[in-house]
Amino acid sequence: MTQRVREILSWYGAENAGTLTNLAWLLNHGRLAGTGKLVILPVDQGFEHGPARSFAPNPPAYNPHYHFELAIEAGCNAYAAPLGFLEAGARDFAGEIPLILKCNDNDALLDEKDPNQALTASVRDAHRLGCCAIGFTIYPGSAYQLEMFGQIRAYAEEAKRYGLAVVVWSYPRGSGLSKEGETAIDVVGYAAQIAAQLGAHIIKVKLPTAYIEQEAARKVYDQQHIPIATPAERVRHVIDCAFAGRRIVIFSGGPAVSDEDQLLDEVRAIHAGGGFGSIIGRNSFQRPKKDAVRMLGEIMDIYAAAPDRT
Question: What is the pTM of this model?
Fold first, then answer.
């Protein structure tokens, strides 16, 4: 085990040996093994956005096995998906890649100002399928946020009892926020802190903009001269918000984009800002497999290199 992985595991001193072993499995798997960086393939979009919107751009992706194969061939650290997709392939690919069971989901059939998530899988399901972690979405800013906070607290407690790691998708959204506020730097930093306080080992957030949503926060950012002008500075601030970098924060790949250079520039900014990696779904599986494997390889090469702090 590398010194970097040992250092990261030391941040989770309250956890049992099973949870630390599963975190180590994530950190020691794939092309980035031992670096402390992660690239994870998430495929919950069929549930969240619908099958045609998600998979028609690359029809082989309708098949659940395709995503296991893509994650394995690309050398990802892990593959995350809802219950049905994992059940469709967990036996066939047992032991080949760490799995994360997404335990709650939403759909796109109802236009909601205040989104919520249904509980669609259990910790026992994750244990039965040989997963290393559970995944759970919360929506800070939604009228249902307190309900979701209570749910993840209970799920996290049970997951840790089973020796599993906890990955929280912390996505600000709802009537308490403007659309621009969903990716505002103060709000994304707050979302990372909330997830860390709720017991997450790994936190997934969106790449923030320089916009500041809360007026009370704006005064502090101005008075303290918190640097947020560049993407790398904003990433660094979000990392600070997650226990001064003592929780693993990874950033979403965002909506599908055809401009690979834009995506790679975002990855460079995440790396330069001290981010722990990326979780990239649509920008991976909506491309032909050979293109996705090549692109994911370029992303991993960026994370494996020394970051450019300039």
Answer: 0.97
